[in-house]
Amino acid sequence: MKKKVSLKDIAAKVGVSTALVSYVLNNKKTDRIGKEIAGRIKIAAEELNYRANQIAKSLKTNKTFTIGLIVADISNPFFSALARIIEEEAAKKNYTVIFGSSEEQSEKSFKLINALLDRQVDGFIIAPAENTESNVNYLIQHDVPFVLIDRYFPLIDTNWVTLDNYKTALTAVEYLLAGGNKRPCIITYNTTLNNLRERKTGYENALQKNNIQFEKDRCKEILFDSNIKSSVEKAIDELLSLPVPIDSILFASNILAFHGLKYIHSKGIKIPGDLSIITFDEMEASDLFYAPLTYLEQPLLELGRLSTKILLENIDKKKDPVQIKLDATLVIRKSTLPVIVQ
Amino acid sequence: MKKKVSLKDIAAKVGVSTALVSYVLNNKKTDRIGKEIAGRIKIAAEELNYRANQIAKSLKTNKTFTIGLIVADISNPFFSALARIIEEEAAKKNYTVIFGSSEEQSEKSFKLINALLDRQVDGFIIAPAENTESNVNYLIQHDVPFVLIDRYFPLIDTNWVTLDNYKTALTAVEYLLAGGNKRPCIITYNTTLNNLRERKTGYENALQKNNIQFEKDRCKEILFDSNIKSSVEKAIDELLSLPVPIDSILFASNILAFHGLKYIHSKGIKIPGDLSIITFDEMEASDLFYAPLTYLEQPLLELGRLSTKILLENIDKKKDPVQIKLDATLVIRKSTLPVIVQ
DNA sequence: CAAAGTTGTTTAATCGATTAAACGGTATAG
DNA sequence: CTATACCGTTTAATCGATTAAACAACTTTG
What we know:
Chain A is an alpha/beta fold. Helix content of chain A is 43%, strand content 16%. In chain A, helix 2 (18-25) packs across helix 3 (35-47), helix 8 packs parallel to helix 9 and helix 10 (228-240) crosses helix 11 (254-266). The relative contact order of chain A is 0.11.
């Protein structure tokens, strides 16, 4: 790679010190600097097509204008859309985002955090994987600014922005019940992650509020690290073979819904006739299905923007933790057309 | 953020110079260094949890172990999957990838290139947008290592890795013809980008080889910056209202296919009964459609790995341009079940 | 035993910026 | 007419590493 133009080159060309060039190009001490020479410096910089070396700048200022984003699974459209929003939002403030995907693994998450710290990121936005409390505490101990997104740890007092998962699940199930369904089921992950646990609690409480007995058999939990597709298929088989037939399913994520829907369809079950379905997260793919899914749309833009805003504020100056729960939108489509009560 | 441990801190703790610490931790001059003191340095580094400041290292070595990846549209699963592969491949060699999306705009592309150059990336992998020949020439002039991916400019002799788009389209159309279709259409973009032009040429030549007259009305070109959805719908309306009914469509990209399929479905047209369909790029979404699409699968893994490999080799040492065309796989599903010739 | 070679470590320059402090020169004040 | 203030610019230290060269202190060698 060709050698780049440095402050020194400009200084030499104009015949001044590098300090002066730096002041001029950064608009510092403007009141003190001679207009004529400032002009010549600017012209020279232009002519040489000077571009400051950010590495050198970072070394001196101890700031890289880079933030680390660690998502749990970049292949999930939810996270890739979020990543894109965060990237755009950060770019507006001149920050670059470096991505990493923890693949829901705590070891990988820790490695990533360290790799990004090595690169001197100014802070992090993290969708924490299960059992990564230690990672979070590590960041707190080292005074590294960060914001958790999508998930958080109730016992750790730090910045986070998530969906109000409890309320969202509750709303969804009540909507199913209002539509005439009597036996809603849930397919979620078996995890300690609070966002998913809250979805389950929301499901349970919606039943309770409506005087419906919670049946363990109607609540299926998929292991994160299993083969998702076959686990979902097994779960659905079990649901369908219950003595008292079920009438509706809430999927706790788009991935679960995708596999579930394919399987349900392959079994010739009609939606919403035989089964009503709601899923968390957008499912554009189901636009091609004969019954596009009713879903719980997360406020991605707000999630991304708020988390970025909070992080950048914390980078500038340490602040008290901010904790935000946002509301989802229930987008009603064909998979939950009301069942006519006979 | 807390101050980090530097070489100086280790040197002070052990009572030696920073030079020695640097040599020990980088395993340089190992034959000259005292074993005992080397041990003490390593232990001290461990105790202080030392992590080298990559910024300082980069400034000195003029190498950041960072590559810039500029895709044309990160929301397209084709590019996001590719990005992920490149990221993984680069990580194996200790490189970090910084992403950017040009959104198919040449100005944005140029801005991105400069922003990444400011950050001293060691090289680029770029899926160039239309009319970005100047950007590419700029990189050549400045001796910046790079590899083009997915698209290239025939007149610029540089590294690139793409699909053999001509051959792929030709194969697809011949497959349609072999299945009994007589009047295949193509819906592509109106662009000068060679990858898409070659798809069109492949379509044309397949017809020619089979003694079928090329009909302008059966070839629809969508403007990149138009509303893709409505443009595709209009194109399909026009195709369907041709005096001589069409029997099959080749979509030049997954995005086009997605919108097209939704619209075709909404009009009650049966696939493959009324219309056979093939698309470029994987279309997982169509798994939920009653007739999953036959598609041309790009060798993403190879594309990503080869481009990364070529780039890293060029970063190490300037080499002669390498130009590679890869083959696609025709994945046959339900949207092209052969039409029975009466 | 002096010259030459080894060994283990330090010195100091360097990468490309930033920035407090210093420095001459001119203008203003007392 | 000296003292002080102000102006425009330079000096030099610094960020945290790397690395060629220098340097003592020994050990060999002829």
